[in-house]
Amino acid sequence: MKKQNVRTLSLIVCTFTYLLVGAAVFDALESPTEKKRCESLRDIEKMIKTKYNMSAEDYLVLETVVLKYEPHKAGQQWKFAGAFYYATTVLTTIGEYRTIF
Known about the structure:
Blueprint (H helix, E strand, L loop, with lengths): L2 H49 L4 H12 L12 H14 L8
Main location: membrane
GO biological process, one term: stabilization of membrane potential
Membrane topology: Multi-pass membrane protein
């Protein structure tokens, strides 16, 4: 294998490894917090339903009126795939900016 090919392959492997490690770090840091937040929102929902004797349908109407959308019901966002995407975004936006004209 040519020396240049080895360098290129090494760079690709290092970059991919960097992305995997970054994704694992973001996943490890963000997932527990997001799970706790989701559980907290569920507890608040149960408390409101119990306190005001609301049905699930009534609560859904209240939630829709107050929020106008339902972002916390989108599911967990910080899974490994999302963290990998974020790490890729960070990697591709870091660098020296040059305009060549």
